[in-house]
Amino acid sequence: MITINFERLKEDIEALSRIGRDPLGGISRPSFSKADLEAREWLKEKIKAAGLLLRQDGAGNIFGRIEGRGKTVMAGSHLDTVINGGMFDGSIGVLSALECLRRIKEEGLRLSKPLELASFTDEEGNLAGDFMGSRAFIGALDRKMLEQGFTQIGPPLSEILKGTEFTIESITEAHKQRPEIEAFLEIHIEQGSVLETEGVSIGIVNGIAGKHYRMCSFSGEASHAGTTPLELRRDAFLGLADFALKSTRFVATQHYGSMVTIGKVNVRPGTFSTVPGQVDFTFEYRSTSKETLEELEKSLLDLTQEVASTRGLEFASRVMDKTDPVKIPSRIVTMMKEECEKLGYPFMELSSGAGHDAQILSSVTEVGMIFIPCVDGISHSPQEMINWDDLEKGASLLLSLLLRLAS
Ligand SMILES: [Zn+2]
Predict the structure, then answer these.
(1) Cα–Cα–Cα angle for 202, 388, 47, nearest 5°?
(2) pLDDT tens per residue across span 18-75
(3) How many A from CA of 297 to the centre of ligand 1?
(4) What single-letter DSSP state applies at residue 139?
(5) What per-residue string of b and e applies to 29-48 under the rule 16 or more CB within 10 Å gives b?
(6) Structure confidence by residue, pLDDT tens digits, 276-313
(7) Is 297 helix (H, G, I), strand (E, B) or coil?
């Protein structure tokens, strides 16, 4: 039986983690930064050294391929990180796929279907909203959004692209270079604490939550904190406080398992002696069910109106992004369970509250996701850590799935 070379995979993950070390902690490797460009060259060298066919599309997605006939069996994830992120998010998906293909190549196995590892650009959404690379890959990017959208790291995208071989044009055309895909598999850290709590090494993902993300505001009237009686105030902050509690209570009691989060708040004018006249905030909600997500949209927006009218405020909001929930095909889930049983790995099914490249690819192919635990559920942090044994199991499972799908 062919097995992965786990020591080599571990060395790769450690070597990659030295690219983009941030003096303030962790790894800062947003797509097309100096560190990311270095990581890309590093990966390309690894692909070439493994004897795989190196390919890159117009969005900077990088592929390593073993030829075959028919549709391509693909596995991968992303190499970019959030600012001060960890060394396992994304990287284990790309590098486990690399290790699997490298072993298949070394053994000279002749499989019937082509195999490809994929590293997608800007999964973390530092440049133009989440999943730029995989969205370009499936042809679901809006050119206007790329031209006008803001980036999380300062300059506009067109400016950032000047340091690269890519253009907005090449990004929007990238999907034309996509092969027909049989299935896409992604191994990823859970970024939560379910697996660790249950003491299980392998999570078989059965669904990925969809997300609606909005920029919102309540506006009332700024007035003197000493002279405006409480009952005459139009306090925008109190509107938000009211909404935050009521919306959380609503989701917790009516749609337990779905999420609602207000992550960023700006109170204006923001002085200690003035009643807040306006509050701007980000607002997102998630669910693994499309119907629930639609129901949340309606009920939560109704709730903003109720709060606004009670407190004499105006409410406004703008949709920033929407992703649909994904149900993983039962063919893939069943296959994963069977392979876990053959390998003797304990596993459990779970859903993913976080979005992933696999979610985006689900509109062009069947997808599957393997989760491994991360210590204390911590991710997007320099403290992100795994137990290496879990990764060895996850990567071995990936290899057996790739062999099965490509045979
Ligand atoms: Zn990730």
Answers:
(1) 95
(2) 999 999 999 999 999 999 999 999 999 999 999 999 999 999 999 999 999 999 999 9
(3) 26
(4) T
(5) bbbbbebbbebbebbeebbe
(6) 999 999 999 999 999 999 999 999 999 999 999 999 99
(7) helix
Tell me the pTM.
Answer: 0.90
State which H helix or E strand residue 350 sits in. strand 347-352
CB 81 within 8 A of CB 27: yes
Identify the band that residue 315 occupies on the pLDDT scale cut at 50, 70 and 90: very high
Q: Is 63 exposed, middle or buried (0-12, 13-18, 19+ CB in 10 A)?
A: buried
Distance 80 CA to ligand 1 centre (A): 8
The amino acid present at 251, given as its one-letter code, is V
- 5 Cα–ligand 1 center, Å: 23
What's the 3-state SS for 65-79? EECCCCCEEEEEEEC
First to last CA, the chain: 15
Query: Ligand 1 mean position to 139 CA, how many Å?
Result: 21
Q: 123 C-alpha to center of ligand 1: Å?
A: 7
What are the tens digits of pLDDT across the range 347-387?
999 999 999 999 999 999 999 999 999 999 999 999 999 99
Q: Which residues surround ligand 1, an ion (CB under 5 A)?
A: 89-90
Span from the CA of 134 to the centroid of ligand 1 (angstroms): 12
How many whole angstroms from 150 Cα to the centroid of ligand 1?
21
Strands 347-352 and 202-208: parallel
Distance from the CA of 90 to the center of ligand 1, in angstroms? 4
> How far, in Å, are 115, 140, 293, 337 from residue 255 at the CA level?
40, 30, 10, 29
